[in-house]
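About this split. The held-out portion is used to measure sequence recovery: a designer receives only the structure tokens and must propose an amino acid at every position. Recovery is the fraction of positions where the proposal matches the reference. Here is one held-out target exactly as it appears in the evaluation file.
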């Protein structure tokens, strides 16, 4: 089997790493990929399991080029890591040419591409979420915001690279962000509509399922850490780290999530003519009234995928084939026991303007052992050296019998005596929320 993985970040590296373990796969193409993907399969070639992995210089938004490449190479399966190609309709394009793809259609991907679409869907079908109002006029939004009790959350309708949401502690903050979106057009068309919603309180978790539109299998619940500094301080990022599974999400709570959120969402999408196939990832908050949806994503989470791939025992190709063949009802997904933790190492200045070109030290020594796996995200190779090229550079990921052990194993590999680079920043508290009840 030939597999094409679309994307270049840590999530896609983790997927490539897991796909490479399948006996069904002989070649993996990564578009555009990163240096870690072609260097990073730690499977022993003596086992005969390591497929050929090749990066190809096609960007995720170049849909026609991706299609032509897939047709030319007779790709058997395409896995779309990033949301932008899905929102732009790559799944529709590939399906029209009889190319199997993991990811929802353009219409179905609106569940992530438009927060207004998602909120109205939840309101119509009684899926638990925060109370909200939608605005496209600055003056009306301001008048409404003046009446509210704070904190409140203001969200841009479209994709803003993680910068389109603001938790506002007072009216002044809401006014500033609304002006940024609706008057200054900072995010262009993505901010032409805004949502103002109540600020819910509780622990946030990531809950991903693989679905064929009718049936689904749940992946392990995980927890992301979006703020740039410890104790959830500072601006939002694409994610500073994650761990799985979440100790306080028990079987009873999983059943509630599946019965009140996952099944109703899939049913609602079918009723609206948007059959949803692929990975559905609702970001949830566990309130006193029960779990509620903060937002939907139409693909695997990043960095949640990194610890999930460390723990997944089932051949991931079996999951993908079950989605395409609509046989998920008969699939049992198995997981390795224990926990996994991913700590993201970022460039100095991230999530704002950040430094580039800093050499990463001790990457091979600490990043390719049985205990620790480093998934590369924003990296490139220059003169034989791996250097940082993005904001989120690496995802140091390790497992352990207990969450405490997994945290220890991860952080043990980071710092002056481990993996490091000039200006490196990372949170020191990834996974600590999971230890609160210990």
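Reference sequence for scoring:
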């Amino acid at each position: 089997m030939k597999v094409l993985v679309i994307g270049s970040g840590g999530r896609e590296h983790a997927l490539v790493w897991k796909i490479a373990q399948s006996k069904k796969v002989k070649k993996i193409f990564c578009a555009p990929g990163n240096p870690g993907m072609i260097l990073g399969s730690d499977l022993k070639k003596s086992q005969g399991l390591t497929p050929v992995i090749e990066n190809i210089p096609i960007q995720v938004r170049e849909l026609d080029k991706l299609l032509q490449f897939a047709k030319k190479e007779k790709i058997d399966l395409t896995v779309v890591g990033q949301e932008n190609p899905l929102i732009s309709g790559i799944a529709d394009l590939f399906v029209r040419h009889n190319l199997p793809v993991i990811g929802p259609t353009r219409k179905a991907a609106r569940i992530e591409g438009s927060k207004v679409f998602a909120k109205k869907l939840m309101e119509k079908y009684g899926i638990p979420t925060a109370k909200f109002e939608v605005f496209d006029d600055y003056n009306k939004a301001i008048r409404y915001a003046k009446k509210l009790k704070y904190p409140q959350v203001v969200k841009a309708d479209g994709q803003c690279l993680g910068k389109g949401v603001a938790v506002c502690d007072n009216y002044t903050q809401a006014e500033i962000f609304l002006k940024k979106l609706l008057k200054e057009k900072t995010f262009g068309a993505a901010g032409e509509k805004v949502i103002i919603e109540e600020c819910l309180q509780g622990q946030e978790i990531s809950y991903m399922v693989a679905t064929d539109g009718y049936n689904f299998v749940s992946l392990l619940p995980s927890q992301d850490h979006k703020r740039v500094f410890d104790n959830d301080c500072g601006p939002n990022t694409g994610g500073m780290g994650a761990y799985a599974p979440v100790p306080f999400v028990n079987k009873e709570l999983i059943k509630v999530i599946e019965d009140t959120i996952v099944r109703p969402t899939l049913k609602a999408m079918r009723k609206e003519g948007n059959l949803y196939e692929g990975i559905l990832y609702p970001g949830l908050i566990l309130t006193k009234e029960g779990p509620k949806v903060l937002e939907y994503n139409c693909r695997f989470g990043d960095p949640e995928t990194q610890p999930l791939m460390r723990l997944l025992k089932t051949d991931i190709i079996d999951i993908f084939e079950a989605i395409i063949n609509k046989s998920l009802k008969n699939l049992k997904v198995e997981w390795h026991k224990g926990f996994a933790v991913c700590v993201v190492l970022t460039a100095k200045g991230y999530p704002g303007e950040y430094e580039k070109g800093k050499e990463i030290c001790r990457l091979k020594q600490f990043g390719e052992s049985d205990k620790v796996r480093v998934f590369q995200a924003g990296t490139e190779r220059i003169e034989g050296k791996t250097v940082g090229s993005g904001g989120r550079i690496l995802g140091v990921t390790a497992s352990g019998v207990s969450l405490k052990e997994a945290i220890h194993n991860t952080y043990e590999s980071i710092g002056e005596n481990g993996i490091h680079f000039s200006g490196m920043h990372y949170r020191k508290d990834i996974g600590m929320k999971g230890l609160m009840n210990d």
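Annotator remark: The first helix runs from residue 10 to 19.
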